C-alpha cells in the first residue's frame, strides 16, 4: 500500500482514528507506545544480515495475479525475506508490501502505518475476519500502481491472526488505517488489486496509464 501525497493521504489518514489495537488480548494504543509492542514482533535477535532493496512488480504484470502459498517454516530465509521487504517498502515510501509484489509468491506481508517508520508489523500466513458489517471508503494507493489513488470501501474493524518474524502466532484487532492496510495487503496474496474494485472503465484507464508509463521508462 502506498503513502499518499501531501497531508491528505494514507500517511495522515491515521489521524482520524484512535489506533487502538488488541494484540493477544492486550489493548495497545499505537500513538502511545512508540511502536515498542509491535517492534517486539520484528526483533532480529542478533541475525544482522544485510538487507536488500527489491524490484516491485507493477500493474498490469500478470505475476501480480498469482495466489501466494503458505509459509511452512519460518526460518532464516523467511526472516531475510521479511527484512528485505521492509527495506524495500521504506525505500518506496510505502506503508505495506506483500511478497507477491516482489515476485515471491509466499504468504508474507510487512507494513508500517506510522509517520516515522517506527512501528513495523510482520504478517506471515495472515488470516482476518471482519468485526461487524460496517465499511468505510478510504482513498488507497499501491506501490504496484504508482501515482494512482482511488477510494475503496473496506471493513472498519478486523481481527487478524498471523505469525510474526520469529514464527510465533499472534492475534490482533485493528481499525481505521491499519484495518484498511491489512485488507489491502491480504488481497495481494490472493492475486487481487485495489483497482479490481473499480468500474471496468476506470480500470482500463489505469491500465493504459501504466502501459504509457512503462513505455516512457523503456524509451528513456
Describe this entry's structure for a reader.
Strands 2-1-9-8-5-4-3 form a 7-stranded antiparallel sheet. The protein contains 6 helices and 9 strands. By secondary structure, the chain is an alpha+beta fold. The protein is globular.
Strand content: 25-35%
Give the terminus-to-terminus CA distance.
27 Å
Q: What is the approximate shape?
A: globular
Oligomer: single chain
Q: How much helical structure, as a percent, in the residues? A: 25-40%
* Low-confidence residue ranges: 4-48
Total count of strands: 9
**How would you classify the helix and strand content by structural class?**
alpha+beta
Number of helices, where a helix is a run of at least 4 consecutive DSSP H or I residues: 6
Largest sheet, spatial ordering of strands? 2-1-9-8-5-4-3
Major β-sheet annotation? 7 strands, antiparallel
Task: Supply Rg.
Answer: 17 Å
Return the string of H and E elements.
HEEHHHEEEEEEEHH
Mean pLDDT: 83
Question: Can you tag this structure with a few keywords?
Answer:
globular, single chain, 220 residues, 28% helix, two-stranded antiparallel ribbon, 7-stranded antiparallel beta sheet, alpha+beta
Topology overview:
Elements: H1 10-13, E1 20-23, E2 26-29, H2 30-33, H3 36-39, H4 76-91, E3 96-98, E4 108-111, E5 121-130, E6 135-142, E7 145-155, E8 157-163, E9 169-175, H5 176-189, H6 200-219
Amino acid at each position: 500500500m502506498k503513502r499518499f501525497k501531501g497531508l491528505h493521504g494514507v500517511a495522515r489518514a491515521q489521524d482520524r482514528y484512535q489506533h487502538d489495537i488488541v494484540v493477544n488480548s492486550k489493548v495497545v494504543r499505537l500513538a502511545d507506545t512508540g511502536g515498542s509492542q509491535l517492534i517486539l514482533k520484528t526483533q532480529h535477535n542478533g541475525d544482522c544480515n544485510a538487507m536488500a532493496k527489491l524490484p516491485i512488480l507493477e500493474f498490469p504484470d500478470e505475476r501480480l495475479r498469482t495466489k501466494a502459498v503458505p509459509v511452512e517454516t519460518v526460518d532464516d530465509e523467511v526472516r531475510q525475506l521479511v527484512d528485505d521487504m521492509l527495506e524495500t517498502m521504506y525505500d518506496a515510501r510505502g506503508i505495506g508490501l506483500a511478497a507477491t509484489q516482489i515476485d515471491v509468491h509466499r504468504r508474507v506481508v510487512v507494513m508500517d502505518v506510522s509517520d516515522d517508520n517506527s512501528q513495523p508489523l510482520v504478517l506471515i500466513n495472515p488470516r482476518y475476519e471482519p468485526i461487524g458489517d460496517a465499511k468505510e471508503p478510504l482513498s488507497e494507493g499501491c506501490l504496484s500502481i504508482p501515482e494512482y489513488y482511488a477510494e475503496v470501501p473496506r471493513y472498519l474493524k478486523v481481527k487478524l491472526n498471523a505469525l510474526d518474524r520469529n514464527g510465533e502466532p499472534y492475534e490482533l484487532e485493528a481499525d481505521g488505517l491499519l484495518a484498511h492496510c491489512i485488507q489491502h495487503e491480504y488481497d495481494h496474496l490472493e492475486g487481487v488489486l485495489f483497482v479490481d474494485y473499480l468500474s471496468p472503465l476506470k480500470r482500463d484507464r489505469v491500465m493504459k496509464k501504466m502501459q504509457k508509463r512503462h513505455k516512457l521508462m523503456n524509451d528513456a
